[in-house]
From TrEMBL:
UniProt-recorded name of the protein: Glutaredoxin-dependent peroxiredoxin
Domain of life, per lineage: Eukaryota
Family of this protein: Belongs to the peroxiredoxin family. Prx5 subfamily.
GO cellular component terms listed in the entry, alphabetical order: cytoplasm
Catalysed transformations (reactions): [glutaredoxin]-dithiol + a hydroperoxide = [glutaredoxin]-disulfide + an alcohol + H2O
Any one Gene Ontology molecular-function term assigned to this protein's record: thioredoxin peroxidase activity
Length: 227
């Protein structure tokens, strides 16, 4: 009787274990599905521009712009790396006082539209812009100075355009140009709306601020038309 009970108990335990343990083939399928769900499927290959796909930026404004044509730009400190990789700083005041400057902003370094169109456009038209009296052309992004230098080198930008970091977003917030991209899975966080402005002696003369990350009227050609 004891032997019968032990055998019965062992058989029951075996059946219970087989019901609660996934079959190897099913486990492999589920594991494969889990892996394909969680593994990012995108990549940015900047050497092959044809593989880049435009990001779908949020176009819902987070706040209204705090500046407009006729506004005096608020001062702020931006940074960049020099040829020796030393961090240098420059103020908005130093860039614009007693000068004619074009400041343009992008949502992010190394992103497709910024890398393929916006910055290259200003590099290509830098001589024409400066022949019309522009002293400074500067690109501003909410990225750190190390990223901005790497991007500058990747795009082969020399002295045509200054690549400046507004790493903490101080200037971007001060002019009301924040772009909230925290709902996007790529992880851009809070960046800057795309814009281009013509500034004379610190005063905004032309302000082409895009709706979010759109690229419709903030390029170099658009700035040439107003000079």
């Amino acid at each position: 009787m004891a032997a019968f009970t032990a055998t019965t108990t062992a058989a029951a335990a075996t059946r219970l274990f087989s019901l609660s343990t996934p079959k190897p083939s099913l486990f492999r399928r589920n594991n494969s599905l889990l892996h394909s769900t969680l593994t990012p499927s995108f990549s940015l290959n900047l050497k092959s521009s044809s593989s880049l796909k435009p990001l779908k930026y949020s176009t819902k404004p987070t706040i209204n712009a705090a500046i407009s044509v006729g506004s005096k730009l608020p001062d702020a400190t931006l940074s960049f790396l020099d040829a020796s990789d030393e961090v240098q700083t420059v103020t908005i005041s130093a860039l614009t006082t007693s000068k004619k400057a074009i400041l343009f902003a992008v949502p992010g370094a190394f992103t497709p539209t910024c890398s393929q169109k916006h910055v290259p456009g200003f590099v290509a038209k830098a001589s024409e812009l400066k022949s019309k009296g522009v002293d400074i052309i500067a690109c501003i992004s909410v990225n750190d100075a190390f990223v901005m230098k790497a991007w500058k080198e990747n795009l082969n930008v020399n002295d045509e355009v200054m690549m400046l970091s507004d790493g903490n977003g101080d200037f971007t917030r001060a002019i009301g140009a924040e772009l909230d991209l925290r709902d996007k899975p790529i992880g851009l966080g809070v960046r800057s709306k795309r814009y281009a402005m013509l500034v004379e002696d610190g005063v905004v003369k032309v302000l082409n601020m895009e709706d979010g990350g759109a690229f419709t009227f903030s390029g170099a050609e658009d700035m040439l038309k107003v000079l």
